[in-house]
Write a structure and sequence with these properties.
The chain is an alpha/beta fold. Helix content is 38%, strand content 15%.
Length: 322
């Protein structure tokens, strides 16, 4: 009996390919090429399944052109590259990888917050350019983290993990805004207080974005929201590109409407607006919040397990539902 055909759209751990090969006829992209949409469609013409990343768009056009496709397993917790209603209508299962990257991503969120507040990148560049000639009392003075107010927008698993780090690790006052309020039990566990979005922006010393992307969430932070923030405040985005209006943020940083920003995700990534690249008061990283060996392997294995479960039992472990 022949094995179902599977496309692995980006390079992945060799041991994961070996695991998949036990159940599928695997075509893999170990060259790690970034395919155009037409190239992806051509590759998926005869495929039963695909292991995807955020760089592959699964939309109605692709689904119509690939009638044999029955499941796409995203190696990510986010799935804004999936047109989930179109997939549901076409009978194509969608899965993601929640939970396994929560703690690692929360760790990175704090790394980015600390680097941003304490002007780490700016001061390192200064030192590397050979400009450090003496100590000064006001040299690269940054914002206080311990005991300050942390505002979290998006209070899912990662948001809650960030809150606990802030409250218990740094003695921060944690406020949050979410589409729905947490239970009082969860609020107690996180030592977090629910506030309106406006109050959060006006009050927080550090604002961290951890909400999932959706069309409604696009430009959650734009010029009007940035104008509400303290001039001394920082903004950290570990959520998804498009949640922040990057052009408006670049202008706010230039005008010192806010003090600084730390960004792991961008609109139109991997392209980054030049104004952000050249801005001194912004810390930039290339979408690496989950980038540890343990976590990336766990993500790959969960995506793989979803594919194998579907091929052998017709069910999945972590479905994305419309």
């Amino acid at each position: 009996m022949s094995k179902p055909k599977l496309l692995v759209t980006r390079a992945i751990f060799p041991e994961v390919l070996d695991k998949l090969a036990q159940h599928f006829e695997v075509e893999s992209n170990q060259a790690d090429e970034v395919w155009s949409q037409d190239q992806l469609i051509a590759k998926l013409q005869d495929k039963f399944a695909a292991l995807t990343t955020g760089s592959e768009k699964i939309d109605a056009k692709l689904l119509k052109a690939c009638p044999k496709l029955k499941i796409c397993a995203n190696m990510a917790v986010g799935y804004n590259n999936f047109d989930v209603p179109a997939m549901h209508a076409a009978g194509v299962r969608a899965t993601n990888t929640p939970d396994v990257l929560t703690e690692t991503t929360a760790d990175f969120g704090f790394a980015l917050l600390l680097a941003t507040a304490r002007r780490l990148t700016e001061s390192e560049h200064y030192l590397r350019r050979g400009e450090w000639t003496k100590w000064k009392y006001d040299q690269f003075i940054g914002g206080e983290v311990h005991g300050s107010t942390l505002g979290i927008i998006g209070m899912g698993r990662i948001g809650q993990a960030v809150a606990k780090r802030g409250a218990f690790g740094f003695g921060m006052q944690v406020i949050y805004h979410n589409r729905s309020r947490l239970s009082s039990e969860l609020e107690d566990q996180c030592q977090a207080r629910y506030v309106s979005k406006t109050e959060l922006l006006q009050t927080a010393d550090h604002v961290m974005l951890v909400l999932p992307y959706s069309p409604e969430a696009r430009h959650t932070i734009a010029a009007p929201e940035l104008a509400l923030m303290k001039p001394s405040a920082t903004l950290v985005n570990i959520a998804r590109g498009g949640i922040v209006d990057d052009a408006a943020l670049a202008q706010a940083l230039k005008n010192r409407t806010i003090a600084a920003a730390g960004l792991d995700v961008f609109e139109g990534e991997p392209k980054v607006p030049p104004e952000l690249v050249t801005g001194p008061n912004v810390v930039l990283t290339p979408h690496i919040a989950s980038a540890t060996v343990t976590t990336r392997m766990a993500m790959a294995n969960l995506a793989t397990d979803n594919l194998i479960r579907f091929a052998t039992k017709g069910t999945v472990i972590t479905p994305v539902l419309p």
